[in-house]
Write a structure and sequence with these properties.
The complex is a heterodimer. Chain A is of the alpha/beta class. Chain A contains six helices and five strands. By secondary structure, chain B is mostly helical. In chain B, helix 1 (10-23) packs across helix 2. Chain B is elongated. Classes of the chains: A alpha/beta, B mainly alpha.
């Protein structure tokens, strides 16, 4: 039986871990050193890859993907038409916020899998009341 | 200590030699240091070698992702 996913991971947690300048780097370095079963969205992977492409170059962006492959116990949820429908409803629910689809997909995944912990430095991921680890 | 051979192209060798000389170390020691830097710390998983692999200089880096990716401030 698969282990229950304990925490959802947002792009901001990955960046805090990978960027030694980030003020949350030490915290996420510690958390990622012995990660519990984790979940994230394929949109988070795309966002992280895009961040490295824009901030650095394609080589660093590929290194980001290599890191994602190497991280044990990470489940990446795909994004298809049904995920878009669920995510769209959340974006509309929080229409007063600049919520990205990646943020909203994270909220949808946490809601569906009843995940009670989120690794993120982005307040948007706490809109449904799940406590942020940051 | 294990002895091994490494093949470098001319340019890589020339740059490595220059860097090693500027640090006051041999080319072999320079290569050993480069290998150590690329490996994860002992006792940690292979993914940990990516911890802090970039240094933006921005302590709010993880809080300004939308600005970087989408060009928006929030």
């Amino acid at each position: 039986m698969a282990k229950k996913i304990e925490c959802y991971v947002d792009t901001s947690a990955f960046i805090a871990f990978l960027d030694r300048s980030d003020s949350f780097h030490a915290l996420f370095r510690r958390l990622f050193s012995a990660p519990p079963p984790l979940s994230t969205s394929s949109l988070v992977v795309a966002e992280g890859h895009g961040w490295f492409l824009r901030r650095y170059d394609r080589n660093r962006a590929i290194q980001f993907l290599t890191f994602m492959d190497a991280l044990p116990g990470l489940t990446v949820r795909g994004f298809d038409a049904s995920e878009l429908a669920k995510t769209g409803r959340i974006v509309k629910k929080f229409a007063d916020q600049n919520l990205t689809l990646a943020d909203a997909h994270g909220l949808a995944i946490m809601r569906e899998l009843r995940i009670g912990c989120c690794w993120s430095t982005d307040r948007h991921l706490g809109l449904d009341g799940v406590p942020l680890v940051c | 200590m294990i002895r091994t051979q490494v093949s470098l192209d001319e340019h890589e060798y020339a740059v490595a030699k220059t860097e090693a000389r500027s640090l006051g170390i041999s080319v072999a020691e320079f290569v050993r240091r480069a290998v150590r830097e690329a490996l994860p710390p002992r006792g940690e998983g292979p993914w940990m070698k990516f911890a802090g692999f970039v240094e933006t200089g921005n302590p709010r880096s993880s809080q300004s992702i939308d600005e970087m990716v989408y060009g928006q401030k929030d």
